[in-house]
Design brief:
By secondary structure, the chain is mainly beta. It contains four helices and 28 strands. Among the domains are: about 110 residues, Tailspike Protein, Chain (Beta Complex); about 200 residues, Jelly Rolls, CATH 2.60.120.
């Protein structure tokens, strides 16, 4: 038996009141009680730990009393040598300060956000949506989406917030997406949401067939054959209508099955008041379906926006859960939301640089440093264009100068945002066929020098003309007066008393072949990428 005490990823999560608590719904359960029992004996207490230090570590109280944020810290006991042991599992009850049962979950072992919960509330329910309240955004606050780069497809898009993409069938409409903030103390802010996504179209497009905000999940097996519930908090100042779909995309390579689209909720006629809208459906099984061989299948959640008309939609608190009924919105702390972001895109800071052996097209969020330029969709950038290029544009704009990463046309203006929206481009740091050197007092950040085309290192020449002959006349042995050295004294140079030139000597001259020779040290070359 090897007992360890482990933090679940939600070890300091906030527990919130469900909708049945009226005006308190969504607020932290201050003074709430979390009871932990043996899973196979729901009346036998099973204590958790408040730390993993000590032999044994200190116990939590049972029940654990939630703090002023509705939070607590829990270390769960686990037998690593016998992971299937019944002793690894807990039965958990969440109660309000008056001991009224709010939520419960059985067979819990500290695994992050258990799936398939029998819970009636949202405190133990897995939310597949990442960044569900739009709190994390390395891109722009307001996106001008009249033109987004090709290709415009149902599977590719431009990032408008961390882990959320936007796509549409055709360019032409005048529209924006803004990551906006609720007024502190407003009704919406009381639902634990501080930000929301707002789409607005003021001039409609023509012959549009789709427009949606979407998110990708794992592979096409995600939720396949399971009951799923969607919910979000949404409104519209123009009574717009939306539909929510799940798309099972079987990928590329070989002969994959065609997409399966399932209506999760809708049509939903939004009002000017923020309300919760939801739907519960069975996601189709993928039995007898063919998945593509390229490993890019997935489930897509799509918030389908109005087409061929003007409109406005605001939404937040988005949840996709494997439950048969609508749970309380599964609240996550900011830290939890950040940890759950797509690791491929958002775990590495903008501007980080890496090297690789291949030009990986499957490496999302990394841009090949090809000495090109980046900017918005109208900028004419040669390396990357689109609204999701702004994070890197601003990073280079703020941390380098025009001699290193030039802004065109006209150089740097008032701000990175102003230049980006003015359709300017910024140069990526020059890197092709160049050695890297650590920036410091002698070499400025992103500075360049030398020539990548002169072969100065590979074939360097010292012609004979650069080393002319220098005649030196030979000397006689002359007459010298040596200086003495005494213990503790100072030696001095000998004094020449007389020097007489004599004949018969030979002057030195230039020598060498005059051919190229290499002074290049051992090296290896890789492709270089910079993080969007």
């Amino acid at each position: 038996m090897t007992i360890t005490y482990n933090l679940a990823s939600e070890h300091q999560r906030r527990y919130v009141y469900p909708a049945s608590y009226g005006a308190s719904a969504g607020l932290p359960i201050v003074g709430g009680k979390l009871y932990t029992f043996e899973s196979n004996a729901h009346t036998t207490p099973k204590t958790t730990k408040s730390s993993n230090e000590g032999s044994p570590p200190p116990d939590n109280t049972n029940p654990i009393i939630l703090d002023s944020n509705g939070e607590c810290v829990i270390y769960w006991e686990f037998d690593d040598a016998n992971p299937a042991a019944a002793s690894n599992y807990y039965y958990v009850e969440l109660r309000d300060p008056n001991d009224v049962l709010i939520d419960s979950y059985d067979m819990y072992n500290g695994v992050p956000y258990p799936v398939g919960s029998a819970s009636s509330g949202g405190n133990f329910v897995n939310n597949y949506c990442r960044n569900p309240q739009f709190n994390w955004n390395r891109f722009k606050q307001i996106y001008k989406l009249s033109t987004i780069p090709a290709p415009l497809t149902k599977y590719t898009g431009t990032y408008v917030c961390d882990d959320w993409l936007f796509t549409k069938s055709t360019n032409g409409a005048t529209e924006t997406i803004e990551i906006a903030s609720f007024v502190p103390g407003s009704q919406e802010a009381q639902s634990d949401a501080s930000k929301y996504l707002s789409w607005a179209c003021t001039v409609s497009g023509a012959a549009e067939t789709y427009r949606f905000v979407f998110q990708k999940y794992g592979n096409v097996q995600t939720l396949a054959g399971q009951t799923a519930t969607f919910q979000f908090l949404a409104n519209s100042t123009q009574a717009s209508q939306v539909n929510i779909y799940a798309r099972q995309y079987f990928g590329t390579g070989g002969s994959p099955s065609p997409d399966v689209e399932t209506l999760l909720a809708g049509p939903i006629n939004l009002t000017s008041t923020m309300n919760v809208y939801s739907g519960t459906v069975q996601i189709p099984s993928i039995l007898n379906k063919t998945i593509g061989t390229n490993g890019d299948s997935r489930l897509q959640l799509e918030i389908r926006l109005p087409i061929n008309t003007i409109g406005q939609v605001g939404c937040t608190n988005i949840a996709l859960t494997s439950t048969a009924s609508v749970p309380t919105f599964p609240y996550q702390t900011l830290e939890e939301q950040q940890r759950n972001l797509d690791l491929a895109w958002f775990s590495v800071p903008t501007g980080d640089i890496k090297q690789a052996i291949t030009l990986q097209s499957e490496n999302p969020g990394w841009l090949y440093m090809n000495n090109g330029t980046i900017g918005n969709a109208l900028s004419g950038g040669t390396a990357a264009i689109g609204e999701d290029a702004y994070a890197l544009f601003a990073y280079l704009w703020d941390n380098t100068a025009d001699p290193q990463c030039g802004v065109l046309p006209g150089g740097r203006g008032a701000s990175a945002l102003a230049d980006f929206d003015a359709n300017k481009t910024i140069n990526l740091p020059l890197s092709l066929d160049r050695f890297n050197i650590a920036a410091g007092s002698s070499y400025v950040l992103a500075g360049t020098g030398g020539s990548p085309t002169s072969n100065a290192l590979l074939a360097h020449t010292h012609p004979l003309s650069s080393n002319p002959a220098t005649p030196y006349a030979p000397f006689s042995d002359g007459s010298w007066t040596p200086q003495s050295s005494t213990p503790g004294g100072t030696d001095t140079a000998p004094v020449v008393s007389s020097v007489a030139a004599v004949g018969g000597g030979t002057a030195t001259g230039s020598t060498g072949s005059g051919t190229d020779f290499s002074i290049l040290p051992p090296y290896v070359a890789f492709y270089t990428f910079i993080k969007f």
